[in-house]
Design brief:
Elements: E1 22-26, E2 33-38, E3 48-56, E4 60-65, E5 68-74, H1 76-81, E6 87-96, E7 101-106, H2 109-119, H3 126-135, H4 138-146, H5 150-154, H6 161-179, H7 183-202, H8 207-220, H9 226-236
Parallel strand pairs: 5-7
Antiparallel strand pairs: 1-2, 3-4, 3-6, 4-5, 6-7
Helix pairs in contact: 2-3, 7-8, 7-9, 8-9
């Protein structure tokens, strides 16, 4: 007499991974699903890439990581920070959509966090956030938001008056808290710079040329007065 039935099936070994935590992607029959990865509420699947820079353009790069090429969207700011050597490391944000998984890469953690703050605002998608970080440096973005500089935010292509106001409303307190900025000093610095710019334009300098120099002066001395900014700018123009 047999102790076990011949057709009795062996029980599968238990797994520590809950089926509820698995992400399934539907495929054509006869295979219905394939396990893509484990999804958690706090951890992100890809947070940085370190490898060989295979291709680069002002809008995207391809990074070879152990034989796998990752296509990564970047801002102009990150493009300007890419190293001369082939070895590169980018901090990434993975956007998961129904039709695609899109990677965005950043030269610093700070730029990535600003990007994530921007896309948390209703009406600001990843494309507009990247455009903002291509038109302005991360420092200019944080200063514009902290200083309630709606004109600077609205100057970015794709951002209208209502969206610009929403960005300031949603993010100003977060920016001031996270970056420890002084609201009063930021407003004063921006006001002085704008006044100095107007004066330099009156003297015949182009705005683009004058703004670059004024930014440099304010960066060296955030507390500079209008007169000091003009004097230092004239020495460099």
């Amino acid at each position: 007499m047999h102790s076990k039935k011949k057709n009795e099936r062996k029980q599968p070994k238990s797994s520590n991974v809950s089926e509820q935590n698995l992400v399934f992607i539907p495929l054509d029959k006869p295979i219905k699903y394939i396990i893509f990865g484990i999804q958690t509420s706090k951890k992100r699947m890809i947070t940085q890439l370190h490898g060989r820079l295979v291709e680069k353009s002002p809008t995207d790069v391809v990074i070879d990581c152990h034989g796998v090429g990752y296509f990564v969207n970047i801002s102009l700011h990150t493009f300007s920070q890419l190293p001369v050597s082939d070895s590169v490391m980018l901090f990434t944000h993975l956007q998961v959509r129904e039709d695609a998984h899109i990677l965005y890469g950043f030269s610093s953690v700070a730029e990535r966090e600003i990007f994530r703050l921007l896309i948390s605002v209703s009406g600001v998608g990843a494309s507009i956030a990247r455009t903002m970080l291509s038109s302005l440096s991360p420092k200019q973005v944080t200063e514009a938001i902290a200083g309630s500089d709606v004109a600077t935010i609205q100057s970015v292509k794709g951002i209208g008056a209502k969206t610009a106001q929403r960005v300031l409303l949603d993010l100003k307190e977060k920016i001031l808290k996270v970056y420890g900025l002084d609201d009063v000093s930021i407003v004063s610095s921006n006001t002085n710079k704008n006044e100095a710019l107007s004066a330099l334009e009156t003297l015949g300098f182009t705005r683009k040329q004058a703004e670059k120099v004024c930014d440099s002066v304010v960066k060296e001395n955030p507390q500079a007065t209008i007169e000091e900014i003009i004097k230092q700018a004239l020495k460099k123009l």
